[in-house]
Design goal:
By secondary structure, the chain is mainly β. The protein folds into two domains: 99 residues, Carboxypeptidase-like, regulatory domain (Immunoglobulin-like); 566 residues, Beta Barrel (Maltoporin, Chain A), CATH 2.40.170.20. A hairpin with a 4-residue loop joins strand 29 and strand 30.
């Protein structure tokens, strides 16, 4: 009833604010190459009314008849001014010239692409993220992009979340923040829980599917995601946001900017805190984060110093549910921390079975426009991460911890109950750099990076029922690892006047990884990779463009791969064919891809003892697919954004040991690779400042293992969300008051978006061997909601 009453109140407020007497003022903001620029602030001088451009560079306002001056704030020292006269609907197109410098774009120009590149990609701007940015992680906010599948351990998008693109897991998605690698160097995964509410400091993001363009860090084997943090704000502001919702979810954040001081300096910051009990039992999360940025700008220079980070304490929820009866009748069950009696019955749960981790990032960027044609960027970075996960263990062997048996009342005891902490303490630092030349139809970018990771892995016993001769916090293992990564690349885009464009991208990358440990053994491997990429684009007319590209990529194994055996590096040949159409009311992108792998490290379906997925080399495999997405404007008040991804994902001549014999299973389906992923965003814009969006997502059934076992299937699911936002402009002493509401899974569908699958052998009485299996699932929340308010001063 509370939700219904809230929606009723909002609807009354919205419909009462019809502005029929005002005229539509609209346009598109484009860069020098004619590409749309998202996230540009558009203000009306003197009346403090404004908006932002969307991912297509488009914006609109409603104004009374009269004369106005529009101010366009973007990543340049000075804003653009446009004087207009409104007398009916008024179009105001803006295209930058060589003198208008987008300095912030230099931060990501080396790793981003535009429509002149033969790459399949999607952009999301801050304005598009904002209506649903109510505390959930970045992967969840990206859920409706083509080919994307997301999941949440706690079931509601707060805490540990994951993303897969084209069936490739997060270790294959290369993530950069302002061009600097974010993936963990050893595991190659991305842990968004360490940067809670980071979306509130993101100006835009770009997801490239496939190999994409050369990026810093590990190679992209499914996709690359690069984020650009907030641009320099010309105007001072303060903003307070609060969110509340299901599962006792609370988010509070504070943002501020000094605006440009003396036309050169700006300080921007954010503080956030998110708390949630989670949908799953005891899957609570207590998250804090900060973001502080100091900037200097002049006519041709942008210098930024950023420090940001977060801390998280989350109760472990990475085990899922294996028992079908529990899955059906007690979907929120969490076995983590279970304490058993002598008969194997659960009698209690350890109350501090948590993951506790902190991560701090520092970045220094210097962007320089040397002339109308030459620009450069150099960056230094340092990340410090430290933390542990804590576990209560029952009846563990002394040998596991290097302890000697103890004699108690004349009986030799060699097992004990204990509490342990497994620590990770690491440093990651380095530099990235690029030089760009752009004149007329030619664009050349040359750059590279050097990065070094130093990690300590160690375990401590903080309590034991029988401690033997151990002391508090004795380390029962103490491992180290060092990884260095050096790469150089050069990219060229050249367009002929007949509409034909050429693209070339060459990267050389060398990686050295050293590790020691009981699980990994002694590792000292060096990899040298050459990754060429070539492509053609052809612009048939102003509305249509075709492209084709071929890319080769290589990728080194991660730490878990070494723990599983003697892994080989992966190789990928990626062929992409695409068509783009841009009309007045319809934009359409279609892309066909064929990704052929050698020694692909596919997910086996199994997890290690900390919930991380395991992988193994499989020889030859491929992914073949079609991706289509569109934006269709139905008049001035409706927008439809459908997308669909169809794929066939195969292991070729797959061998697996079943019932004690190595069997040729033929061509099997690659795990975690649904053949159909579809989404849609239907948006209604009834009045200025209001939007109502109905969001839909379908994911077909998928196997959780690679042997096509029926027991390893994850059922398909179709979920829908409802999102409403309304902004009151210039209310009392507020610049804006924004109300947002998000109802997830409005039809209360019972589904699991992730799971695991494992096999094991048992010896039969007749001497034969039988292979058995187990399957686990991660249930997601039924209907749940978040509602928020933003106050901007």
């Amino acid at each position: 009833m509370k939700i219904i009453n809230l929606f009723t109140l909002l609807f009354v407020l919205f419909t009462s604010m019809v502005q029929a007497q005002e005229n539509r003022v609209y346009g598109t903001f484009k860069d020098q190459a004619g590409e749309p620029v998202p996230g540009v602030s558009v203000r009306v001088k003197g009346i403090d009314k404004g908006t932002q451009t969307d991912t297509n560079g488009e914006w609109e306002l409603y104004l009374l008849n009269g004369n106005y001056e529009l101010v366009f704030y973007y990543a340049a020292p000075q804003p653009l001014l446009r004087a207009i006269t409104v007398d009916g609907a008024t179009r105001v197109p803006v295209q930058l010239t060589e003198e208008d410098v987008l300095l912030d774009e230099v931060l990501v120009s080396a790793v981003r692409v535009d429509t002149e590149s033969p790459v399949s990609f999607s952009d999301l701007s801050a304005s598009e993220i904002a209506p649903r940015n109510l505390g959930q992680d970045i992967p969840i906010l990206m859920n409706y992009l083509p080919g994307v599948v997301t999941t949440s351990d706690a079931g509601a998008g707060v805490g540990y979340t994951g993303i897969r693109v084209r069936g490739s897991d997060a270790t294959r998605v290369n993530v950069t923040i302002n061009g600097i690698p974010y993936n963990d160097a050893e595991s190659q995964g991305t842990f968004w829980v360490n940067l809670p509410d980071f979306a509130s400091s993101v100006e835009s993001l770009q997801l490239q599917r496939g190999v994409g363009t050369s990026v810093n860090g590990a190679g992209a084997f499914g996709a690359s995601l690069n984020l650009l943090t907030d641009a320099v704000s010309q105007e001072a502001f303060a903003q307070v946001s609060a969110t509340g919702g299901s599962f006792n979810t609370l988010r509070n954040n504070l943002k501020f900017s000094t605006g440009l001081l003396n036309d050169h300096f700006e300080v921007y910051g954010r503080l956030s805190r998110i708390q949630s009990d989670g949908y799953i039992d005891r899957a609570r999360a207590d998250l804090e984060s900060y973001f502080l940025q100091g900037s200097y700008v002049d006519d041709n220079t942008l210098i930024k110093v950023l420090t940001f980070g977060g801390s998280e304490v989350t109760y472990q929820a990475w085990y899922g549910i294996e028992d079908p009866e529990i899955l059906e009748n007690n979907r929120t069950f969490n076995i983590a921390g279970a304490i058993y009696d002598e008969n194997g019955n659960i009698v209690d749960f350890y109350d501090n079975e948590v993951d506790n981790y902190k991560q701090d990032h520092t970045q220094l960027h210097w962007n320089q426009q040397w002339s109308p044609y030459w620009s450069s960027n150099i960056a230094l970075h340092y990340t410090y991460g430290r933390g542990y996960f804590e576990q209560y263990r029952q009846d563990d062997d002394f040998d596991t911890y290097g302890l000697e048996p103890v004699n108690i009342d004349g009986e030799l005891v060699n097992t004990t109950d204990l509490i342990r902490r497994r620590w990770l303490d690491n440093d990651f630092y380095g530099t990235t750099f690029s030089v760009q030349y752009q004149k007329d139809n030619l664009k050349i970018i040359t750059g590279g990076a050097w990065n070094r990771y130093e990690g300590d892995h160690f375990g401590e016993i903080i309590w034991a029922r029988y401690a033997g001769d151990s002391d508090y916090k004795d380390r029962y293992y103490d491992d180290t690892s060092v990884k260095t990564d050096l790469n150089f690349y050069s990219k060229l885009n050249y367009r002929l006047d007949n509409g034909l464009g050429f693209y070339a991208d060459m990267q050389y990358r060398t990686v050295n990884y050293q590790a020691n440990g009981n699980e990994t053994g002694l590792v000292d491997d060096t990899f040298n990779f050459f990754n060429p990429k070539f492509g053609l684009t052809y612009r048939l007319n102003d509305a249509q463009q075709f492209y084709a590209s071929f890319a080769r990529a290589h990728r080194e194994p991660n730490r878990n791969d070494y723990e599983s055996g003697n892994p080989r590096p992966e190789k990928l040949n990626d062929l992409e064919l695409g068509w783009r159409y841009r009309g007045a009311d319809l934009e359409l992108n279609a892309n066909v891809y064929y990704m052929r792998y050698k020694d692909q490290l596919v997910l086996t379906g199994e997890l290690n003892d900390v919930g991380a997925p395991l992988r193994s080399n499989i020889g030859d495999s491929y992914r073949l697919g079609l991706e289509v997405d569109a934006t269709w404007r139905l008049g001035e008040n409706w927008i439809v954004r459908p997308n669909i991804a169809l794929s066939d994902n195969r292991n070729l001549d797959y061998f697996f040991e079943l019932d004690g014999e190595l069997q040729d299973l033929g061509n099997t389906t690659i795990a975690y690779s649904p053949s159909v992923i579809a989404g849609n965003m239907l948006t209604w814009l009834p009045v200025d400042g209001m939007q109502v969006a109905f969001l839909s997502k379908y994911v077909s059934e998928q196997y959780l293992g690679n042997i096509d076992a029926e027991s390893s299937k994850l059922d398909d699911y179709f979920v829908n969300d409802l999102n409403i936002q309304y902004t009151f402009a210039d209310v009392a002493f507020f610049k804006a008051i924004t109300l947002s509401a998000l109802v997830n899974n409005i039809f209360d569908v019972k589904y699991s978006s992730n799971g695991y699958f494992y096999t094991y052998d048992i010896d039969n009485a007749d001497g034969s061997v039988s292979t058995l299996s187990g399957t686990g699932y991660y249930p997601q929340a039924g209907i749940n909601f978040l509602a928020g308010i933003d106050l901007k001063f």
